[in-house]
Amino acid sequence: MEAEIDRIIEAIRDSSNDLIYFISMQYDGEHFTVHFEPGYCLDIKLSKNPDEPTRTSLSIRGITVVITGNSASCLKSIIHQFMLVTYAFSAEMSLYFPRAFYDLDPTFYNLLEMCENSPLMQSILWDYYEL
Question: Which domain of life is it from (predicted)?
Answer without folding.
Answer: Eukaryota
